[in-house]
Amino acid sequence: MDAALFSSILFATVVAGTPLIIVALGLLVSERAGVLNLGAEGMMAMGAVAAFAVTHSTGNPWLGVLAGLTAGMGTALIHGVLCLSLQANQVAAGLAVAIFGVGLSAFVGKPFESVALPAVPPIRIPFIADIPLIGEALYNQQALVYFSWALFWAVLWFLARSRAGLVLRAVGEAPASAHAIGYPVILIRYLAVLFGGAMAGIGGAFLSVFYTPMWMEGMVAGRGWIALALVVFATWRPLRVMVGAYLFGGVMITQLFIQGSGLQIDFPAQFLSSLPYWATIVVLVLISRNPNAIRLNSPASLGKPFRPEQ
């Protein structure tokens, strides 16, 4: 493999992994607070269509990102009300939010189909981008790629070093105990759910404004579900989320490079397109072989409703 091809694959892998990192880190925070969020696919779809619509109307991609964040939070608020205020089953509520978000985004986005946005130029970091082989691939990227790296360090510090992160983890492990010593468990869980929705909205905005600057129905293409699988694959640890996101991004890009290379292969193109989802299934199967590791690392109250005693 020559240097130019390696740099191209590395560049594309980083870009493909970026929305997965952003969304999965948001879901990780939400699940560390004890709220299972299966609605990420719908939140991403709502963020994608809102970001595209605002960017198309204003010409400002950052207003689009803000709109995507807001749409993701709004969709997450529905999930929060269902699960935290109405005490609905978190699995059923999450699936309902996912279906609702995907369907509503398809309806809202009808006027924007077949419309393209101008490409947003990347931000090149001087000097560092001149490093051979990896410089252009890592340091001549979109702003949200750099944001995903900053988000990783922020979430890592928040969960491991900050008092607020310790409180959030306590809420996820033992909400009754946290409530007994005076912490507002429901409010903390609401904030965690809204943060997860905001990150899902930004992930969707990245897809429709930066990654492929256009809107089409189904453009999220299962990335919300892959992000959910990543959190389990990472056993709720930020570093493993980042590594896993780039692994999945690499799988996505590999199948595109194979299809575009003109190589004569015996597999149909549809099989190559399904490789990321096959990888997700394989990872989940391998993880499920060791349930003790999952139980050891997962928040003890994940998916369990909590109603404060009056």
From TrEMBL:
The keyword Transmembrane applies. GO terms for molecular function: transmembrane transporter activity. One of its GO terms (cellular component) is plasma membrane. It comes from the Bacteria. It holds the Pfam family BPD_transp_2. The chain crosses the membrane at residues 6-28, 35-56, 62-84, 91-108, 143-160, 190-212, 218-236, 243-261, 267-287. It is found in: Cell membrane. It is a multi-pass membrane protein. Its main location: membrane. CDD domains: TM_PBP1_transp_TpRbsC_like. Keywords: Cell membrane, Membrane, Transmembrane, Transmembrane helix. This is ABC transporter permease. It comes from Pseudothauera lacus.
